[in-house]
Design goal:
Length: about 375
Amino acid sequence: MALMGALAVLLASCAGRMEAPGSVTAPAPTNALAAGVRPGPAFASLPVGAMDAGAALAGFAESCPKLLVREDVSGLTRAEDWQSACAASATWSQGDASRFFATYFETVRVGEGAAFATGYYEPDIAGSRDHIPGYDVPVYGMPDDLVRARDGDAERLDNGRMPVGRYDEDGHFTRYYDRAAIEDGALEGRAPIIAWARDPVEVFFLQVQGSGMLRAPDGKVMRIGYAGQNGHGYTAIGSLMRQRGLLGDGPGQYAASMQGIMQYIRENPQEGAALMRENRSFVFFRELTGDGPVGALGVTVRAHASVATDPKFVPLGAPVFLDLDRHEADGLWVAQDTGGAIKGANRFDTFWGNGEEARATAGDMTGRGNALLLLPKGTLARLGAL
């Protein structure tokens, strides 16, 4: 996972559904095939503009080398299903992109197709490669003692993998240092400091996003991306604030957005610092050399074109059409990333790039509506869904 994505993780669980005592909830479907698929309308009938289609074609073509070799855990497609569209995308004119999608794709609803979308962005914060006055917050690379447990030394995770942690002086596997311990200096001599930042609050939110840019006083920019995580589960501090009555529309409450959460932390520095420590998860970074952040698919994510999804329900690399009550997020996107809070059918996290406008849009993005996947023509017939 390259980008954690999802400012919604700050408010995770707020939209959860309460069950009556004693009620029985059907198990959630494990992938798109289990959730059920059915035909959507013809692509030509969708309100997709030429620029929107052109950007999606460029993103799809860039994704194809990964798409053609990646196993699709959604249960919907096979690598060979994408070959014709990928071959055509390499030379197809972006000015005629709508015809490309109409020629090679059919639209599909997963489950009921009811979408929920949030937003993420690439932070641009004050930072420096060198430890200079006023830049005192370390940005850590991967620690040398953070390892995955050997078979038999710990219980496997739900995904079947061994957990990450460290081996103590006696050779026993144990959990890795949490956020509080790291902030108190536990990584000294254990992890490289790849840069220094000015503001610990901005660094906290940089970890939520999973990538960003550090801008030095001389204007030089260092782009960094997700390298790893300490193995502790993510705690959504926005959810904690809501539970404690700190978020809402009432007197003395803060807006239920990234901006509102940051305002609370800055206006209440002692309580805010303690609140951030309740999220024991901690992210480590590496320097990136491309022209943008890299998503879970292994390609650069693009503003207004890339979306994070759950790969169990959307094949990574597949185009997606969104029709939401937040119209700035309407149109074609390409699934190129994943996120810690982006789970389940028709759950999306839209990428808005960097800068203040992107920050404002992503921080306030909560949209509901309908979603369609674009899959190679013939997929539904092969699945027996027609």
